């Protein structure tokens, strides 16, 4: 640990500093969230796959024992039943408290822990715009959204300023889970520790304030803005909130109104009782959360909807035979996408995905995409499916054929949840599990 950092923690924590030092010797807290888009909390617990203990941070968040390994390759993960998430990271969405039919913007969203958590709360209603500025991280965000079966979403790869200029006043709720100096991540992320300096903390503050200025524009009147970080530095937490509120007089800091964590640090010009801090002594690696409401009027960017597509015959035929939720479809360069609400058009922004990637029209045939079978909204509609037997799960995830007398495209289920698909010839099911995801063991 860097001495400058430890000196600051000593000043911040006083009597608790020794306890904090002790936590540094312990393994980091680990957790998973049950993705209720795919499976109920009780139902997942009945599978008895992992020893789970509830965390105080969200009702779908559980501690995972440090000794458990291979979860990322396990079918419960590949089918999107769970998302691995450090427990205190589940706290910000509890404060944001998304409700069905809300329009939510997650401005700094990769790899997608909080976006997939928001999506589960929205339950395939409303609209979730998940943005990530870094190209490669945006791709990871998209794959996590697909795996978790989210359909009422858009994944974009833009700077907050460029994006928010086009979506002024659209959102009921905006989450800024800001890039920060990551002091709560030092145990897991050696790079965060290596990069740490007071200058870096200050540079982070300036970036955080810029991102918040953009987020402000996207919020509708009476909309809720939640700001979170995984760092302890007051310059990036209480001070950011104080500076942001001073610059936006129509924003009000409100009580996070949750039972976990503790009040913020005093002496930074905000009501510290309203914000939440989580230190490792509070059962998670570390988070800061503040909740604000916008009272001022906000100009509204026009919402441009894309006209519903009349489906190509091959696609219509496939949908009739396979079964899928009633969706609006959109086609681009032969690829077909679907979502329950009409598609939205945004200009000059790199959009990685809107809705579910259903598949591709190739020479007037329709070739479905893996994401079609992972989409939670489609699960009740599949007309032909095959539940993997315990001894077939490894076979399927390895990419091998399954013996079954089924013909045509078939949804493959693990414990009743879509994990992929296959194509039967009446004798065997040819494996369509994506090559890049195949695993040898779990
Ligand atoms: C704390 S992480 C987000 C974690 C994510 N919310 C989750 O729960 O999985 C912050 C993200 O902000 C992105 N970021 C970095 N610089 C940014 C900037 N100037 N504006 C917006 N986002 C930025 C990073 O690439 C990173 O993915």
Automatic annotation (TrEMBL):
InterPro entries: Methyltr_RsmF_N, MeTrfase_RsmB-F_NOP2_cat, MeTrfase_RsmB-F_NOP2_dom, Nol1_Nop2_Fmu_2, Nop2p, RCMT, RsmB/NOL1/NOP2-like_CS, RsmF_methylt_CI. Gene3D superfamilies: 2.30.130.60, Sun protein, domain 3 (3.30.70.1170), Vaccinia Virus protein VP39 (3.40.50.150). GO terms for molecular function: RNA binding; RNA methyltransferase activity; S-adenosylmethionine-dependent methyltransferase activity. It comes from the Bacteria. Keywords: Cytoplasm, Methyltransferase, RNA-binding, S-adenosyl-L-methionine, Transferase. S-adenosyl-L-methionine binds at residues 108-114, 132, 177. GO terms for biological process: RNA methylation; RNA processing. The keyword ATP-binding does not apply. It holds the Pfam family Methyltr_RsmB-F. SUPFAM superfamilies: S-adenosyl-L-methionine-dependent methyltransferases. Residues 20-295 form the SAM-dependent MTase RsmB/NOP-type domain. CDD domains: RsmF_methylt_CTD1 (cd21147). PROSITE patterns: NOL1_NOP2_SUN, SAM_MT_RSMB_NOP. The active site is at 230 (nucleophile). Belongs to the class I-like SAM-binding methyltransferase superfamily. RsmB/NOP family. This is NOL1/NOP2/sun family putative RNA methylase. It comes from Dielma fastidiosa. The lineage of its organism: Bacteria, Bacillati, Bacillota, Erysipelotrichia, Erysipelotrichales.
């Amino acid at each position: 640990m860097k001495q400058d950092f430890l000196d600051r923690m000593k000043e911040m924590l006083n009597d608790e500093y020794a306890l904090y030092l002790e936590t540094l010797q312990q393994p980091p807290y680990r957790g998973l969230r049950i993705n209720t888009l795919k499976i109920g909390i009780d139902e997942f617990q009945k599978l008895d796959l992992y020893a789970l203990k509830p965390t105080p941070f969200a009702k779908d968040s559980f501690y995972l024992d440090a000794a458990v390994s291979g979860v990322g390759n396990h079918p419960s993960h590949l089918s999107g039943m769970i998302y691995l998430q450090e427990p205190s990271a589940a706290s910000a969405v509890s404060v944001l408290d998304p409700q069905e039919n809300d329009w939510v913007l997650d401005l700094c969203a990769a790899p997608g822990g909080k976006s997939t958590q928001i999506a589960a709360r929205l339950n395939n209603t409303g609209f979730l715009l998940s943005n990530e500025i870094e190209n490669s991280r945006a791709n990871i965000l998209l794959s996590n959204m697909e795996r978790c079966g989210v359909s009422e979403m858009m994944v974009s790869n833009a700077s907050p300023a460029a994006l928010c200029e086009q979506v002024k006043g659209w959102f009921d709720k905006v989450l800024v889970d800001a890039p920060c100096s990551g002091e709560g991540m030092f145990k897991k992320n050696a790079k965060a520790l290596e990069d740490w300096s007071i200058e870096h903390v200050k540079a982070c503050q300036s970036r955080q304030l810029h991102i918040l200025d953009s987020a402000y524009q996207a919020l509708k009147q009476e909309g809720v803005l939640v700001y979170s970080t995984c760092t302890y530095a007051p310059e990036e937490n209480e001070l950011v909130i104080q500076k942001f509120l001073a610059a936006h007089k129509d924003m009000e800091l409100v009580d996070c109104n949750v039972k976990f964590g503790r009040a913020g640090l005093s002496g930074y010009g905000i009501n510290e009782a309203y914000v939440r801090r989580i230190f490792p002594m509070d059962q998670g690696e570390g988070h800061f959360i503040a909740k604000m409401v916008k009272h001022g009027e906000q100009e509204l960017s026009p919402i441009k909807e894309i006209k519903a597509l009349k489906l190509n015959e091959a696609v219509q035929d496939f949908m009739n035979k396979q079964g899928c939720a009633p969706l609006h479809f959109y086609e681009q360069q032969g690829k077909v996408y679907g979502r329950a609400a009409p598609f939205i058009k945004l200009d000059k922004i790199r959009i990685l995905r809107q809705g579910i990637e259903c598949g591709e029209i190739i020479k007037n045939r329709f070739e479905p995409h893996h994401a079609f079978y992972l989409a939670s909204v489609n699960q009740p509609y599949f007309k032909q499916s095959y539940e993997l037997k315990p001894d077939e799960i490894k076979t399927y995830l390895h990419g091998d054929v399954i013996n079954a007398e089924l013909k045509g495209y078939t949804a493959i289920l693990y414990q009743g949840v879509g994990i992929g698909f296959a194509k039967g010839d009446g004798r065997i099911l040819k494996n369509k599990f994506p090559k890049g995801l195949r695993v040898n063991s779990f």
